Each structure stands twice: as structure tokens, then as C-alpha cells.
Amino acid sequence: MVDLKQVYDVIVVGSGAAGGIAAKELTEGGAQVLLLEAGPALDPHKDFLTHRWPYEMPFRGFDKPGDRQKSYPNQWTADEYSRGLYIEDPEHPYTTPPGKPYTWVRSRCVGGKMLHWGRNARRLSDFDFKAADRDGYGENWPITYADLAPYYDKVESFVGVSGSIENIPHLPDGKYLPPMPLNCGERMVQKVAPALGMRVIPKRAAQRTAAIHGLMKCHYCGHCGRGCDVGAFWNSISDAIPAAVRTGRLTLQSNAIVRHVTVDGGGRPTGLHFIDRATKQHYEAKGRVIVLGASALESTRILLNSVSRFWPNGMANSSGVLGHYLMDNFGGPGISGLLPQLRDRTPVNEDGKSSGVDIVAYRNITSRHPRFIRSYTHEGGSGARLFPGYAKAMVGYGAEFKKSVRSWYTTPLSFNTRAEVLSRFENYIEIDKNVVDAWGVPVLKIHCQFGDNEREMAKDAVENLKALFHALGAEHVRVSTELQNPGSMIHDMGTARMGADPKKSVLNRFNQTHDLKNLFVVDGAAFVTSGGYGPTLTIGALAARASGYILAQRKRGDL
Amino acid sequence: MERRVAVQALAGVMVAGPIAAQPASGLRFFGPAEDALLDRLTELILPADSHSPGAREAQVSRFIDLMVSHSDPQVRDLWRTGLRAVDGEASRRFSQTFLASSPAQQDQILRAMASSEKRPETELERFFVRLKSMTIDGYYTSAIGIHRDLRYQGNRALDEFPGCRHPEHR
Lengths: 559, 170
What we know:
The complex is a heterodimer.
Chain A: E1 7-13, H1 17-28, E2 33-36, H2 44-47, H3 67-71, H4 126-129, H5 131-135, H6 145-159, E3 161-162, E4 176-177, H7 184-192, E5 200-202, H8 240-246, E6 250-253, E7 256-263, E8 269-276, E9 282-292, H9 296-305, E10 329-330, E11 334-338, E12 357-359, E13 376-382, H10 398-407, E14 412-420, E15 428-436, E16 442-447, H11 452-472, E17 475-480, E18 519-521, H12 536-555
Helix pairs in contact in A: 1-8, 1-12, 6-12
Chain B: H1 2-14, H2 32-45, H3 60-69, H4 73-94, H5 103-113, H6 123-139, H7 143-149
């Protein structure tokens, strides 16, 4: 429980990938840390429906008709099993301009979105950090791969990432636990792909294939998206936060909705103003250093709501770029089909690993594509899934139809596309002065659209996936070409980007605001480019690096 | 249009009224006669065979009743009028209800309903797509569908994940 009289060494906001790693590193380094989380602490054994069968659910996993539209229309990855891990939309509004929808998925609970994330844990490389040098678009990051590599090592070694050593220049290898074996369909893709210029590797998943330092290994039930009851993948409630608790220096305050950063008579941060989720009482906690790790959009929302005569346009916003350069990794373009070679097999547990394969980025690596810059990847997998969704696309009925559904049960294969979305000034967030959430906190108005570069990438990606499925002899192929709304990949990045130039960026190379030395942002908000895949591992590495910097500065007496 | 109105009027006589009258049945929306028709239709779509029981034993009609009972009034109407249209078609073709028709006659009607699945146009064709989709949902999320028909092997704890065991793909 927070002590409102105490001045904490550091207050960390948010308990997911960023806040969890920061809390661990800072407490292990000797700091007294207060960790503020907007939502409740959930009990995995009570609140996670990890192993529930559809027929044990009130609505078979489809949820009560109408409930999604009413309670969680934007939480599109949530379902009847997992919706308790997500927010309810009506009490957490946000606005968008007409014709520019943005899908904002949020989890407010200890652990945040890590309780149900996709576990993709690939490193970025200098292809990303120095991308502007290659094609002239946008800005470089103020760090190199060499700066971050030791922190990737550190995070991977702590959380456990399964993967294979591949020696790919633009996809650096990490410290891996053994990779998960491939299913038959995945092996077939791996054999066919090289002829099309594609390379297939086992997914690099922050999901343990071996137990390490007291953390459980995966038991292959296949239901990571419902929350893992034994914490076998990286999620801060089973790894980083318990480690921080063990130091005796962590105070975790759940249900604390941070509204803004408080300042002293000189405009310098002194702590955080927060609201009790249940009672709606307002409080102020005091800290010497403030570390925001509440997700890109929530951390920047706090800064934009931290207005005073010193900071009329949002705290640490002397550059005017706070809120700008919002990014996601797009989703939507993808393909699914059935492999006739795998028909009529005895089903084995194939969806239990819940992680398939990656097709490594292959565009604009060694050559230059005429219609777009940057690159994309594909994630996919094969094997019998619990529900035979393909049955709805098969015509017919009766005994023959039923037999056919069974016959194809072991054959599904699917791939999606994840891409680098360009960093653009005109994709930005601001405070909507007319709308507040259920706790009276002004909400975000989100302006975000994809451009021609993304659309050209999507077209190219779909054509390549079609060629791959053709080469495999897949049948019942279904292609999806539409881009989902920005935000849908739940990889919100940018809005408080790092940079060498304080006029063009909010944060320096250590995630410290250029304007205020005791204010840091350690989540996806710091990203300069979006890479072609999930940002979480890089968020963890940046949070670890920033925490090391904070500890060193404290030792020197500078913080 | 005129024919459809007439068919509905006729079917209305044969199909039982709203649920409130049959609390003991456990039905939430459909009446017993509607449920019996739905039960037969779902079994025709996913029948029992030598491999596994069908939609009837999996009580798919009760799943549909549950889902429809919580749906919008417009959706509920589509189900009710769809069932009436099936009986109306039986009445038009064979001068009896669908359930009173012979298996061959029932199949004749279902075949007509299923004749344009990819581009359904008539009321019956559209109802078939709705019915089949919900039958798939109900059957393959039932214990019978998952364990006895598909013989799904996941959602259980493994010590190691096996991966592909077929020699030709290794």
C-alpha cells in the first residue's frame, strides 16, 4: 500500500513489459520503488479460464450475443474466456476524427497486456535503428544495436525466450532456450519457402521450453491468450514483479489511475496525482524520479494531461512533437488454406505450442523495392485447431459433409503479415477537451491513418503469400487483403520518441526527457521506427537500459 | 412476395407460439414444435454416423435456442420465420409439415435450401446458411463434436511438444 508521506526514490507507472522490467531492475539496484497500476491484481487460478472447454462456458466461448458490441467493441482480441483481462470500453472512451477509426486495445490490471500477449520476442537490429541512413526516410534512433544488445541479453536470460540460432544480419540471434519443434505443415512451408526467397524459422517466443530460475516451462495447452495459469511465458506478474517484491523495496499499488505528474514551484516533477479506481478519491504520491511505462498512448496521455503554467502544451514538450509519430505494425493481409497432403491423419496435439513459425523479413534488405520502403514479416502456423472454422466455407451438409470436416481437420495452415508502419508527424494524439473517462480524466483523441507505403506493402505481401500457398498445393485458400484499423496489432509505438536532437524528439538516448532530468518514458512511446514485428522485447531492453542509467545517475548524485 | 406471405400465414398455424407457455421444456425462445423441427434440421446437417453421434445427441438445437434467445429481435424473427418457411415449403411441396414428410422428401427440401450456399438469394437459401453456421458452432463446441467426432488432442498438459512425427516431413 502506498505511503503518501514517503518520498520514493522512483515511481514507476504501469506494470506490464516496461514497468515490470523497470521495477525489477531499479529495486534490485537498491532503489525504493512505488509501482502504480491502474487496474486490479488478478488471481491466475481464479480469474484465468486457461483450460476451460467451450462446453463449460455459458456461451461456448462465443460470448452472450450483443455483449461484445455493448461492453468491449474495441477489444477485438478478447473473447468470452479472456474478456476479464481487458478493459470495458464504455468506461474508457477515446475519440477519433470522422473517417479515421483507430482500434485501441487495453488491459488495466497488474501485468497489463502481457497477460495475453502474442509472445513474439525478436530483436531489432541496425537495419531498424539506422534505417534513415539507408533510405533517407525519417530519423535514426539515437542508439545502435551494440548499445542495446547487452540489455536484450539481460531480458532474454531473465524471462526465457525459445528460439533458434540463425545468423541473419537483420534479425540478430539472442540468448535462447531450445526452439519448439515444427508441425508437419510448418515443415512443408520451410521446405518450399526458399525457392520463393523466403526463410522460415521457429517463432522466437517468450514462452519457456525449459524451466529457468524458478519460472515454469510451458505445458503446451495452447491457450496463452486466456492468461497462463502457471506463468510459463513472460508476463510480469509471474517474473519481473515477484523478483522486485523479493528485494523488499517494491511497493505495488493497484487500482491507482494516474491522472498527471505533479510539479514543484519550478515546474519540476515531484510525483504523481492518481485516482482510486473504486472510491474515485484523489491522491498524490511523491517520488524523486518518475518513470512512465503505462503503454505508448497512456504514458503520453499522462504527459499531455500534465499541464501547468510551466507546461501549457504538455509536460516535457518543448519540442512540440509530444503526441506525434504514432505507429503500429499493421495487420489484416493474410492467407489461410488447407493442405491436402495432411488429410485423414490421426489428430495429435498440434495447437498446444500456440506458437508457429516466422517468415523472416525479405523486402528491402539487400535490394530496393520500387513501390515501398522498409519491410514486413509473416507469422503463421499449421495443425489441428480446436474449432474447425474452415467448415463454414465448405459447401454441403449431411454425412459426407461431416466426414469431410473430419478429413481436413489436421490440414489447416495460415499466415498473417506484420509490417513496419512509417513514422509520420500527422499521426498523433491530443487531449479531447470535451470528453473524460469514468474517473474524470480527459481522454485521447487519436488521429492515425496508414499511407500508400503501407498499402503497397500489403499488396506485395498478399501476392507473395498467394504464391507460397500455390507452391504448397493448398486448397480452400482464403485471402484477406484489407488492412485492419491502425492500432489493431496492439503495438502502439511513438508519441514521445527518442532522438539526438531535442527539437525533434522528447526523449534522449536513455529514455530521459530532454526537458526534465527526473522524468523518463520507458515503453513503446520511445520508439523512433516501428520495426516489422512486436515491440515488447525491445521495450523490455530499453526499460532495463534506462533503469541502469537511473541507478548510475543516482549513485553519482545526479538524480 | 405474395406466395411467401401466404406460406408464412399457413405455417403460423402449424408452429407453436412463443416460449412463455412452455417453461418446463427448458426452452428459452423456441416453442417445442419449433425445437423439434430445429433438432431434425441440425441432425440432417451433421448426422450421427458410424464414427460419432450427430447434432441431435449434442443437443445443438438447445444451443441455438440459447444463442437466439439472447439475440436482437430482428435476429430472433429471422429464425422464427425461417423455420416457418421450411414448414411452408413442405406444405407447398408435399401438403404436410416438414417433420411429417418422408426422409427422401426432407432431403429434397434441404437440397433446395442448400443449392446456393455461396450466393443465397431466397429466404430459404439464406436461412440455410444461418442454420448451418450455427449448427457448426454448436456441434463443434460440444463435448461430442470435440472429443468423439474430431478427436481433438489439445488442451491437455504435455511434458514436451512432439512436433511433426510423419517421416516424410522430417
